Amino acid sequence: MARSMLKAKNMPREFWVEAVSCAVYLSNRSPTKNVDNVTPQEAWSGRKPSVRHIRVFRSIAYAHVPDQGRLKLDDRSSKYVFIGYDSNSKGYKLYNPSNGRIIISRDVEFDEQASWNWEAQEEQSYDFFPYFVEEQDVTPTQVMNHLPDMTPQQDMTPPPSPAPVHESFEESSSSGESSSETPHKFKSVEDLYRSTEAINNLFCLFIDNEPLNFGDAVKDESWKLAMDEEIKSIEKNNTWELS
User: Fold this and answer.
1) Taking the model in full, what pTM does it have?
2) pLDDT by residue (tens digit) across 184-230?
3) What is the CATH number of domain 2-124?
4) How many Å apart are CA 71 and CA 73, to the nearest integer?
5) Could you tell me if 82 and 93 are in contact, meaning their C-beta atoms sit under 8 angstroms apart?
6) 107-139 per-position pLDDT tens digit
7) Cα–Cα dist 183/185, whole Å
8) Residue 55 gets which letter from DSSP?
9) How far apart are CA 30 and CA 162, in angstroms?
10) Distance CA 56, CA 74 (A)
11) What SS3 string covers 159-180?
12) Whole-angstrom Cα distance, residue 20 to residue 234?
């Protein structure tokens, strides 16, 4: 089942864990001959599970961006790929192919007929720094080889007659182009990676870490605002039912 879920929309094999987890989730809520008249989830918990929240694996999902996470003119939702269900909440697991991050969200709108074009993403170029650098292999000797051969004897000997204006212009233009033209080449990402490898580790100092527990989260004002927003959304949508 997991293999079919990946193959259906050409998802990368790196998502096999999410595919297996989602397949198990669906199997536990589907009829089986091993348990009579009930699903495995119902046999284990004693309650009939709801399937109204079931969505198509690897379909496109648009998750709501809270007010504190965006500016006035920013989009109110972000585009993700649905990769499963969270085991600790009623949220959906969503993957952002643009930055590789996974989030959990309940405020989601699905487009189950659409899917991410993984093949196009693999074929696109990742040269994010399209600037030019001077060719290092060009030596002064190579540049001088392009100049006309001028010897002292030719410089001291006056011409027998004035040279035509168009010939003199062409010669000076050719000489100017040969001497002023600077070869360039495109710098690849691999070259940039090698040149910045020595300072890559320093970037980790500027990355924000997510809190590991509730105690750390309530100390952060931004996380408190996010929790308040989530609680308001739960109350508004009547997500939880107390029994």
Assistant:
1) 0.44
2) 566 676 676 666 655 545 545 545 567 778 888 888 888 888 888 88
3) 2.30.30.140
4) 6
5) yes
6) 899 988 887 877 765 433 334 444 444 444 545
7) 7
8) -
9) 98
10) 28
11) CCCCCCHHHHHHHHHHHHHHHH
12) 29
Report DSSP state, residue 242. Answer: -
For the ranges 40-54, 82-96, 163-177, the lowest mean pLDDT is seen at 163-177
DSSP for 105-155 reads ESSEEEEEEEE--HHHHHHS-------EEE-TT--HHHHHTTS----HHHH
Per-residue pLDDT, 92: 92
Question: Token digits for 234?
Answer: 């739960």
Distance CA 84, CA 82 (A): 6
Q: What are the extents of the domains in the chain?
A: 2-124, 133-186
- Give the mean model confidence (pLDDT) for residues 56-79: 85
What is the C-alpha end-to-end distance of the chain, expressed in Å?
34
Q: Match 């039912």 to its residue by tokens.
A: 241
Sign of the alpha-carbon dihedral angle for 39, 40, 46, 49: negative
Count Cβ atoms below 10 Å from residue 31 Cβ, excluding itself: 12
